[in-house]
Amino acid sequence: MDQQQARGWLGTALAEARTGLAEGGVPIGAALYAPDGILLGRGHNRRVQDGDPSMHAETAAFRAAGRQRSYRGTTMVTTLSPCWYCSGLVRQFGISRVVIGEATTFHGGHDWLAEHGVEVVLLDDPACVTLMSGFIAEHPALWNEDIGE
Question: Beta strand pairing status for 39-44 and 75-80?
Answer without folding.
Answer: unpaired
